[in-house]
Design a protein that fits this description.
The chain has 176 residues and is α+β, with helices and mostly antiparallel strands. It has six helices and five strands, in the order H-H-H-H-H-E-E-E-E-E-H.
Length: 176
């Protein structure tokens, strides 16, 4: 009786699983080019997806501004943004999406206010419009942090510093 109940409960699951079938063609078993592509994905070949481990051969191919296999954005802008915002504590950094977010920073000279910045690297080219920096400011009022306006020139000045540092990094790597 117990086995019958178990079979009755398992039957709908088995029938549902069988409903998701498809016809498999012979070329899927015997096509060597397809098999090679799948093996390349597992082993980390260039045209495949790396599943296990790290493909260290890509790290040796290009430098900071080479083919940038490890970054989704321009390496000079990325490094320059990190350098420029290094005085603030880092909250998160996404090198593939090109977003750097700092944590709140209180300047020693201004104890009643704090700042936070977010840098967006917008592409793989070293261009003047390739970086955007947003700055946020809060003031301490009655023991509570309240959002306060930021001068529009603040973000632009940080962008200019990032671009100047990126040009410096590029010229240093070209000299090597």
């Amino acid at each position: 009786m117990r086995h019958l109940r178990l079979a009755v409960l398992a039957f709908p699951v088995l029938v549902a699983a069988c409903g998701q079938t498809r016809q498999v063609g012979n070329d899927e078993y015997y096509d060597d080019s397809r098999r090679a592509r799948v093996q390349g994905r597992i082993s980390g070949n260039q045209d495949g997806l790396l599943i296990l481990g790290t493909d260290r051969s890509r790290n040796r191919e290009g430098g900071a501004g080479g083919d940038q296999a490890g970054l989704g954005v321009n390496a000079y802008l990325w490094r320059a943004s990190l350098d420029t915002l290094s005085f603030m504590p880092l909250a998160s950094a996404d090198p593939f999406g090109g977003v750097i977010i700092t944590d709140w920073y209180t300047p020693p000279a201004a104890q009643g206010e704090r700042f936070r910045a977010t840098a967006y690297i917008l592409g793989r080219q070293l261009r003047s419009d390739g970086v955007r920096v947003s700055v946020f400011r809060q003031e301490l009022r009655n023991g509570v942090w309240v959002d306060a306006p930021v001068a529009t020139a603040t973000g632009t000045e940080l962008e200019d510093k990032v671009l100047a540092r990126a040009r410096e990094l590029r010229s240093q790597s070209a000299a090597l």
